[in-house]
Amino acid sequence: MDLDNPAAPKITATLGAPYLNELRGIAVQFRYAFVVDRDGMKVLDVTDLAQPKPVAGAVVPLADARNIYVARTFAYVSAGRQGLALIDLEKPEAPKLDRLFTADGQLNDVNDVKIGMVAGSAFAFVADGKNGLRVLQILSPWDDPAHFSGFSPRPTPKLIATARTKGPALAISKGIDRDRAVDESGNQLAVFGRRGARPLNREETQRLYLRNGKLYTVTDEPVERLQGQAMASH
Prior knowledge:
The chain is mostly beta strands. It has 2 helices and 14 strands. It has helices at 202-206, 223-233; strands at 25-29, 32-37, 40-45, 53-61, 67-71, 74-78, 84-88, 96-101, 112-118, 121-127, 133-139, 158-163, 210-211, 214-215. The model has no long low-confidence stretch (mean pLDDT 88).
C-alpha cells in the first residue's frame, strides 16, 4: 500500500498463493520483509518497496508460526506449541533456524513477542496464550558475559518471570521508541531527549544500496581474484 497520501491509499502490489499460505505476520528491516504463514517463515525482497518479490528458497519451515519480530540479525517467531523460534538472519536470503526455545516445555502456546532493552540487558516479552505473559532474558552482560559483546550476539534466552492473565495472552504492544520515533517515510513523529534526532528516512536509506536505480553491492572476494575472473571471461 502506498501511503504517501494517507487520505487516498493505493495498492501497488498483491502477493498470495502459491508463495504465501495464510499470512499471519510481517516485519520489515532494511531491504527485506520477513513474513510468517502456515508453512513457516519466508523472505521478500523489498528493495523496491512498491513491488516486493519472493526470495526463492528463503524459507524456514515451522509447524505453527503465528507472528514475528526482527531485531538486528535475529528473527523471533511466535511458534505456537513449538515455543519461540530464533532464526539467524545474518544472511537474509539464506535464513536458518538457530533454535526452538520452550523453557523445558513451559512455552507451548506462543502468539506474539516483542523485544526490549533495559540498561545493558535485552528481554523478550511473550504472549504465551493460555499460560499468560512470559518474560525472557535474552542477553545480559551479567549472566552471560562471554556471549554479550558485538553488534548482534547470539541470544541466550532464559525464562525469568510469568504473569497469569484473565484470559489467553494473544498480543504484546510495542514499547515507545525513545527519541527517534518516525513514520514509514522517516518523518519524525516526536521528540523526547534529543531535539532533531532521527533515523534515516527512506530516500537517505536508499542511497546506501542504490546507484542510478540499480542495486549496489559489495563482496568479500579479493580484488585481484575478481580482476582475474573478469579477464578470463574476456
